[in-house]
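Section handout 9: paired folding examples.
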Amino acid sequence: MATGRQIIFLFLVMRGTLVLGSSFKVSAAEQSPTFWFEMGQEDLQDSLRVVPNTHIAKNLIIFVGDGMGLSNVMAARVFQGQGEGRPGEDSQLSFEKFPYVALSKTYSVSHQVPDSASTATALFSGTKTNSATIGVSARAKVNDCDSLFGNELTSILDWAQESGKATGLVTTTRVTHATPAALYGHSPHRDWESDSKMPKNATRCKDLARQLMEDLPGRDLRVIFGGGRRQFKPITHMDSVANKTGTRLDGLDLIDYWLKEKKNRNARAKYITTAAELAALNKISVDYVLGLFNHNHMKFEMDKKKDQVEEPSLTDMTRAAINILQKNNKGFFLMVEGGRIDHAHHLNNAKRALSETVSMADAVQAAINMTSSKDTLVVVTADHSHVLTVNGYPKRGNPILGVAGTSNKDNLTYTTLLYTNGPSYHMINGRRRNLNGTDTGSKNFFQDVLVPLSDETHAGEDVPIYATGPMAHLFRGVVEQSYVAHVMAYAACIGRNKQHCQRIGDRLPLTAASESSASLLTSPVFTIMYQIFIFIILFNRR
């Protein structure tokens, strides 16, 4: 059912009083205090209807928007809305509708501004560590193989598998890249994805691709979707699609190893490489699926062909993963990463970054549609931010990828979105480049920067956490990034929280009876009764 504000919006559009894009005109309704008062009251009623869900989470899903800082979220929100023909500012990404929001402090043990390896380790293990390291405590030294041993951390993937849950990971990067690797790997350096990337004196350590295929918890992942075929194939193997060889120097074919290992366990396993194969996948006839859809990272969403035979979208992979994992009656854990948001930002390429963010928001909505908030905790967050800024005083409805204004110092235009640093540095004889005649909305436009660097950097401000489902209300205030794993484990009664949950008599799995009670608590009648009760208490205190 449409909300009051949506009805007003549609009415204004039909009347023609609302003009979208750069010629947007403020409606008479928005000029009236009544419009905003009614909107505030509507939001207030929505908030009053929210009742904390304290049941045990059967399923856990965490979405990580790599590099999805607050400026990115705001810009992506507007980008999505303008793509739908709206002014954009009043739009909402799917996860912005979640009832609980917190902020996460992203610094690592060693750095004020972190990398993705340390932040992912914090998110998944509940422990902060040094930048560049994966799945190890801060006692381990960067690039020092010997310091790995004795400092390995367990992750929420371990805890979920120990409790009998089916597990999966989905990413648009290589599956051995920093964020997914922190789920299953232990490495003193994030770059040790293949043996060809390891120093000669690191013979005691395994590269991340081998850990994923050979060791727990990686080898027990039911679903692995992403890119990075090259890390699993020997240098003698030629990839028929990329026309490039594998990277392994040890001669191992880890994909072949994975298939044989599953066969030896009498498990039904399938290896796929295209969107068409993913679409044809029969969840009933498969127990394990390894989908590697690119030799390297998967393509940016804007660059994919739409013929359903090449690479699947993040939404396609998310749906397929949930379909397979839902077969387990003990529930599942799934990590989904929108990994290429980060890569676009490193290039100063805002349009691709925003497109990747909207793509992840679509995947979040798909997950919400396939599960129930009554027994599934869904968390959406970022590992870190980027130095993307939203500049100037552009008017309502101004294209988010457009020009914000003209400088009163050099008389040159500048875009709404800019970066503090990065490779897109354009100074000619001490002057900024002239953007007149430039299509700043092109996917191949790279925003201007202040400080020239070969690669744009991360930013250190807090990043958002959005949550819905069992125990989602525990995400509140400003928290350490490592807190995320603790809430998810507590919600599902896994890991260190398993015994704690067993001691609590009032936390129960969702049953038909408890579901009926939960429905009653969220009903309009209960909401009205609750509000009357609060009013009586406050009145009697006077």
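Moving on to protein 2 of 2.
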Amino acid sequence: SCPLIASLQGEKEPRGADAV
């Protein structure tokens, strides 16, 4: 999940998943 989406959804995922 992207940092923005994760924040909105209340998730706590590393930004590495969003990094290209």
